[in-house]
Design brief:
With 362 residues, the chain is of the alpha/beta class. Helices cover 40% and strands 15% of the residues. Strand 5, helix 7 and strand 6 form a beta-alpha-beta unit. Bound molecules: pyridoxal-5'-phosphate.
Length: 362
């Protein structure tokens, strides 16, 4: 007797519907698709990272609690170290939050937003409830509060990826005060603008803040994120956390970055100034609608399909972000790059739009 092995038949329906996250590599392009820090990583910090390595740094398991990193973060963020947890990117922390509070519960997500919330919620066996933002992408506070009643987790991104707008302290206070579940505020881009909600942690035990080294701090390749919350929330998350989630090299890299944070503050200043120039430049291109942003990217739409613009730009070796989300059909997101990259993007966008216009006229 023989059995047909059918792994697909064994998994939950929600997994069958998920598509794996692929990011396609396009060699030799100007990469404005992933909101990374566009500058070269400072070589003096690389030297410090390697100088911190000992003969057994790679042979031994990492510090499971990343204690030195947490101490340094605590000092710099002005919270006790028992309010912080480090993760293998904030992506891992999002998964841990979903496994802890989402599994078997409802997870409320204000959309359009970062896709990983929905993906990790579904992987965790949570029921995803999407609450659409207003036409200007503002938070529908009342609707979130209503949906949050009896939910396991509410997730808000501020500044929001990809729309660029931020929540206000007033909106968040209202959501925190009216929801009994943890309210996660992903502040991956807070270095670039918008309110920092850390001060609200004192009054609101259900606030969970996510931060990352992947954007302003230039460490996307080393996967370091962290979470700020009350110890009673962290105690639960620690039950779910992989013991050695953050490798030794990434721990010391994040420490080196923190100890040189002035360099990254200057990067941020330059990026914010470039963002405003890019915004003004895009506004001048006929038919382009661009949204104000507190982050290091701009959301925009044109009179043509997002796919035509995306491929037109790619033909000119400029990579931006196109979305699969139906709520974002027609929209693209461009990351603020170095000044020369932004100029090339603007010029390319002008040319692509002109060409598309000529083809229609024919
Ligand atoms: C890029 C990004 C992150 C960062 O994730 P890491 O796993 O820390 O690299 C988190 N949240 C949002 C909204 C992002 O855009």
């Amino acid at each position: 007797m023989s059995y047909v092995f059918n792994p697909e038949g064994l998994v939950r329906d929600c997994l069958k519907e998920l598509t794996p996250y692929h990011s396609v590599a396009y060699p030799g392009v100007i990469k404005l698709d992933a909101n990374e820090n566009p500058f070269d990583f400072p070589p003096e910090i690389t030297r410090q990272m390697f100088a911190a390595l000992g003969p057994q740094s790679f042979t031994r398991y990492p510090d499971a609690m990343a204690e030195e990193l947490l101490r340094e973060l605590a000092l710099r963020r002005g919270v006790p170290a028992d309010h912080i947890m480090a993760g293998n990117g904030s992506d891992e922390l999002i998964l841990n939050l979903m496994l802890t509070f989402g599994a078997g519960n409802r997870v409320i997500i204000a959309t359009p937003t970062f896709s990983m919330y929905g993906i990790h919620a579904r992987v965790s066996g949570a029921e995803v409830v999407e609450i659409n933002r207003e036409d200007d992408f503002d938070l529908p506070v009342e609707k979130i509060i209503q949906a949050g009643d009896g939910a396991g987790l509410v997730v808000i991104c501020s500044p929001n990826n990809p729309t660029g707008n931020s929540a206000t302290a007033e909106q968040l206070t209202s959501i925190l005060g009216n929801c009994r579940c943890p309210v996660v505020v992903d502040q991956a881009y807070v270095e670039f603008g918008g309110a920092d909600f850390l001060p609200l942690l004192e009054k609101h035990p259900n606030l969970v803040i996510l931060r990352t080294f992947s954007k302003a701090y230039g460490l996307a390749g080393l996967r370091v994120g962290y979470l700020l919350a009350r110890p009673e929330v962290l105690r639960l998350l620690h039950k779910v956390k992989q013991p050695f989630n953050l490798n030794t090299f990434s721990q010391l890299a994040a420490l080196a970055v923190l100890r040189n944070s002035g360099i990254f503050a200057r990067h941020v200043e330059q990026i914010v100034a470039a963002r405003e120039q890019l915004f003004a430049g895009m506004q001048q291109i006929p038919g382009v609608r661009v949204y104000p942003s507190d982050a290091n990217y701009l959301l925009f739409s044109t009179n043509y399909s997002a796919s035509d613009i995306f491929h037109g730009l790619l033909g000119k070796k400029v990579l931006v972000r196109n979305f699969g989300d139906p709520l974002l059909s027609g929209y693209l997101r461009v990351t603020v790059g170095r000044p020369r990259e932004n100029e090339i993007f603007l010029q390319s966008l002008r040319e692509v739009i002109t060409t598309l216009g000529e083809n229609i006229d024919e």
